[in-house]
Amino acid sequence: MQKLFLFLLLSIPVAAFSQTAKENKQTIRKLNQRIAVNPQDHQAYLQRSLVKEKMGRKNSARKDRAIAMRLGMKETYDTPTDFEPD
């Protein structure tokens, strides 16, 4: 009886974790599709880095964050301003 209870107790978190892992993988697939359509979408890279970090993929998340920052900076400096030099 104790072994059965212990098994049931341990199987619940594993099932919950596998569901979370599936959701994370699906989220990454959706973000990959978004990036494939528009490679300049820095928000998609940023969201993907957050999901990867949550999954424990720190180096990959760091690369995505760097890409997002580069694209975000480019977007900031490419926009025209109302400033006219003398």
Question: What ranges have pLDDT less than 50 throughout 5 or more consecutive residues?
Answer: none
Helix percent reads over 70%
Any idea what the radius of gyration is? 21 Å
Shape: elongated
Structural class: mainly alpha
Mean pLDDT: 76
CATH class: Mainly Alpha
CATH superfamily: Tetratricopeptide repeat domain
* Total tally of structural domains: 1
Q: Which second-level CATH architecture applies?
A: Alpha Horseshoe
- Beta strand count: 0
Task: Write a brief structural summary.
The chain has about 90 residues and is mostly helical.
Per-chain topology:
Elements: H1 2-37, H2 42-55, H3 58-78
Task: Considering the chains and any ligands shown, give keywords for the structure.
elongated, 0% strand, mainly alpha, Serine Threonine Protein Phosphatase 5, Tetratricopeptide repeat, 86 residues
Structure overview:
This protein has 86 residues and is mostly helical. It has a single domain (2-78), classed as Tetratricopeptide repeat domain (Serine Threonine Protein Phosphatase 5, Tetratricopeptide repeat). Helix 1 runs antiparallel to helix 2 (42-55). It has helices at residues 2-37, 42-55, 58-78. The protein is elongated, with a radius of gyration of 21 Å. The mean pLDDT is 76. The longest helix is centred in the first third of the chain and has 36 residues, at 2-37.
